[in-house]
Design a protein that fits this description.
This is Probable nitrogen fixation protein. By secondary structure, this protein is mainly alpha-helical. Helix content is about 50%, strand content about 10%. The chain has a 3-stranded antiparallel sheet with strand order 1-2-3.
Length: about 180
């Protein structure tokens, strides 16, 4: 045993051992500050709550809502750097799905009628998103460049989500007979 310790002490220091993926992600998270939180967000708390609901192991318990939503914030330079060829990254698709699920959940809380998102995407990153409440299409959006899905700031994310919620709630209020499904 003593010989093994002596041999280790006599070995020259080689190249540094590369960091593991988890260690690199932790270092990146510490190096990047949280994006600024808007003054009175209406949609962001619902989106953060939906993300936290998917955390089955408690990994996100110590994170702020701003840190959870940081993946939705992309600058113009970051967007331009993302290639639009090939299939979109699964993390981007998960963010897109979570965003529209949060819109549907918020519409349901505000109107009392569940709005279910249906997302049909081509593998190249374009398609359509509809939120359906009963027989009513409450929100319909064409999406393109899903590879680059993101917003300039958390305030822009909040405004986009709130606008979709207002559109859906307004559509449900305008057509209440279509929302109720009869057996």
């Amino acid at each position: 045993m003593a010989a093994a310790v002596r041999d280790m002490a006599e070995r020259p220091a080689g190249p540094a051992k590369p960091l593991s993926k988890v260690a690199r992600l932790r270092a990146m998270a510490v190096a990047q500050p949280d994006p600024p939180w808007p003054d009175a967000p209406t949609f962001l708390p619902e989106l953060a709550a939906l993300i936290r609901a998917g955390d089955c192991c408690g990994l996100w318990d110590g994170k702020t809502d701003a840190r959870l939503l940081k993946g939705y914030v992309l600058s113009q330079e970051e967007r331009r750097a993302i290639p639009v060829v090939g299939n979109p990254d699964p993390r981007v698709l998960r963010r897109l799905h979570t965003f529209y699920h949060a819109v549907g959940t918020t519409i349901g809380r505000r109107s009392g009628h569940v709005a279910t998102p249906l997302i049909d995407l081509h593998e190249e990153g374009f398609g359509r998103v509809v939120l359906i409440a009963g027989r009513l299409v409450a929100v319909s959006r064409a999406v393109r460049d899903v590879h680059r899905f993101g917003f300039d700031s958390l305030a822009a994310l909040d405004a986009a989500g709130a606008a979709l919620v207002e559109e859906g709630v307004g559509m449900i209020a305008a057509h209440p007979g279509l929302v109720v499904l009869e057996s």
